[in-house]
Specification:
Blueprint: E1 3-6, H1 12-24, E2 29-31, H2 42-45, E3 53-56, E4 59-62, H3 64-74, H4 85-121, H5 127-152, H6 165-180, H7 190-201, H8 203-216
Parallel strand pairs: 1-2
Antiparallel strand pairs: 1-3, 3-4
Helix pairs in contact: 1-3, 1-6, 1-8, 4-5, 4-6, 6-7, 6-8
């Protein structure tokens, strides 16, 4: 079973897929593909031009959520989706909340100006850029973190009593948020902050973080 993940390592969706593979013990190779300068045939492999794309024995699968669901089917152990129908729905909802709610805000208005653009331009963010990002964090991101804090409560995992796709999907964007210098504030979000610390210490995430930090983690917290 030859599996290749095509995409940029700093993408939260690529990282989610890689962490999912690591938690399952699925070997894979990563082929770096930037969505900003993809190879000429990229639209043939990714009709929406997004990353990641999974190549499995010559067949291509798009979208990190679809990819993870596919990997669960072909490699069911250990299970990373709950068997209970309600818990399954809850896990998928947390994944969608992160992918469709948190990532668009944290990625475009926080990570990109504070961590990505400095790598591309070689210049640190100026005071106005930092202030604009902080405004987005406070006004748009904090309410989303409050919801996550309420859903996690004092539990170790979002759904059930073991790691699921919900936890992997929740932890991945926080790598980018930490690259930008805005991890969850333990004073405001104690349970979420502890969750992020635990998840990022797992080998599945730690390996990705150690790979990324030298390039993107100048503001890491």
């Amino acid at each position: 079973m030859a599996i290749k993940i095509l995409g940029a390592n700093v993408s939260p969706f690529v990282r989610k897929t890689r962490a999912f593979c690591a938690e399952k013990g699925i070997p894979y190779t990563l082929e770096q593909v930037s969505p900003f300068s993809p190879p000429p045939n990229w639209r043939e492999l990714s009709p929406l031009g997004k990353i990641p794309v999974l190549e499995h024995d010559g067949r291509y699968i798009n979208d990190s959520s679809v990819i993870c669901a596919y990997l669960e089917k072909i490699h069911p152990q250990p299970p990373l989706y709950p068997s209970d129908p309600y818990e399954y729905a809850r896990a998928c909802w947390i994944e969608e909340f992160m992918d469709g709610g948190v990532v668009p805000i944290a990625g475009g208005s926080v990570f990109r100006p504070l961590a990505l653009q400095p790598v591309l331009t070689g210049k640190p963010p100026d005071a106005a850029t930092i202030a604009a990002a902080e405004k987005v964090v406070e006004e748009q991101l904090v309410p989303l973190l409050s919801y996550l804090e309420s859903q996690l409560g004092t539990r170790e995992y979002f759904v059930g009593n073991r790691i699921t796709i919900a936890d992997i999907a929740a932890a991945s964007p926080f790598v980018n948020i930490r690259h930008a210098g805005y991890p969850p504030d333990p004073a405001r979000f104690p349970n979420l902050a502890a969750f992020v610390t635990r998840m990022h210490a797992r080998p599945s995430f730690k390996a990705c973080i150690e790979e990324e930090r030298p390039v993107f983690g100048k503001r890491w917290k």
